[in-house]
Amino acid sequence: MYHRYIAAKEASSAQRTRVLIIDAAADLLAASASGDFSTREVCDAAGVAAPTLYHHFGDKDGLLREVAADRFSRYLTRKQALEATGDPVEDFLRGWDMHVEFGVTNPALYTIMYGRPMDGRTGPADHAHAVLVTKMRDLERAGRLRIPAETAADMVASAAVGVTLHLIRTRAAADDHLSAIVRDAVTAAVISPPAVPGAPPVTPQLVRAAARLEAEMPHGPVGTLRASETTLLREWLAQLSALSSAAGGDPP
Amino acid sequence: MYHRYIAAKEASSAQRTRVLIIDAAADLLAASASGDFSTREVCDAAGVAAPTLYHHFGDKDGLLREVAADRFSRYLTRKQALEATGDPVEDFLRGWDMHVEFGVTNPALYTIMYGRPMDGRTGPADHAHAVLVTKMRDLERAGRLRIPAETAADMVASAAVGVTLHLIRTRAAADDHLSAIVRDAVTAAVISPPAVPGAPPVTPQLVRAAARLEAEMPHGPVGTLRASETTLLREWLAQLSALSSAAGGDPP
DNA sequence: GCTGCAATGTAGCGATGATACACAGAAGCG
DNA sequence: CGCTTCTGTGTATCATCGCTACATTGCAGC
């Protein structure tokens, strides 16, 4: 009746109804207290009938996934302009804050994305994780990562999701400092400090000595050092002994 | 018909049917792939009719909460005997591992407990968090906490839940080292080193290697290590190399 | 203009969470 | 024992839910 003129103007009518349904579902989801909606509500709000919804999204879960993906990517792209700092570490920190902020301001969508096991199909959470892995690879390429990029991405994702869900569950404010604390703790565990300011004096003897000590290190606590300290010590020794040749490193 | 005799033997018939329903729901939940069940399934499996279920648990959500609380507390008490170490730090680490293990082995229950916003009423997650806070207070009283106990509990809970949900979401194995890494990272950020440990195993080779590396250590930042880290590393190396004589033996 | 295809409305199915109502059996009391 | 009362349970049913078979509409290409 009426879509004809709109359809003729720009996008296909099908795409129009798609975004119509997605918008209606997102609005209902944001307004709902239970974090859920019925397909009938969505159809009524969007002005379409049930088969239209299922024709476009397959089932309710497909709609949920598309809504989450749409809103999440929209949120990211809207704030992406702020991520223009050349520093990958700064980008990483901003990415964390954006992630948490999105979750706190969109608890229903976030819970759908991260609060339940995957149902086989890939969702927006997988896409976000892929982006995170590339960010970690950037850091790795810049020599700022203590651990493999994939492991770092898993650590960061776990901690960020945990904090966000905790804030959602406890109804805590978004500006709570919990996110910052955990973020810094994870950062300290994942990201190494900038290469070296001056000229790092690393002699082959030091590297050999570090490798020797690393080989001698047992797995439990050593001497007066606690287990956690031993872990950190072993990690540092690995870094030092890995410096073998390319030690003198030159800043770009 | 038949419960009469059982009921007469010990507990009230009402309590019997309660645990009957809870067990049936837990079994169905563990067997279900979707992480959900229908009240009809539960009633059939428990051998009761629908009004009985609603008479005891109010609604489906009440049943879910009671099932989660029952299984979680059962899991904790079953493993609580292993938490007999006097060291509060060790207790904390074991608590973390137990938490993650429970989540990975009971993904459906865990998702119900932590994967969605609180619906006003208190659930098993709140109880678990209260236990965690008391543990953190123990650490605080032992002078092993860098930050307030409540903040530490929030950090630990966030990270542990995040890791567990990540493992559930990615279908990763329970023995994945991700949990250990995040756990150690959080531990390093929350717990301060101990006063004095016991008598750990130290080989003469390790002591010599530590002394050698200590001699090779320069004063500035070394390789990829920050200046502060280098300081700490040098300190630890001094501790290890000082173990030379009194190391292997244990003082009477 | 006719045909094929994608998109949409009408009507309804099966399953689900939840409930109104009545019955059963134990407890208390004469 | 008879009577009442209350908790616990079964029978039957409701409103809603996700979803779909089928018919209809509108638009593209020959």
TrEMBL record, chains A, B:
InterPro entries with a match to the protein in the record: Homeodomain-like_sf (IPR009057), HTH-type_TetR-like_transc_reg (IPR050109), HTH_TetR (IPR001647), Tet_transcr_reg_TetR-rel_C_sf (IPR036271)
Keywords on record: DNA-binding
Gene3D superfamilies listed in its UniProt record: Tetracycline Repressor, domain 2
PROSITE patterns, per the entry: HTH_TETR_2
Annotation: DNA-binding region: 38-57
Domain HTH tetR-type: 15-75
Name of the protein: TetR/AcrR family transcriptional regulator
Organism in which the protein naturally occurs: Actinomadura fibrosa
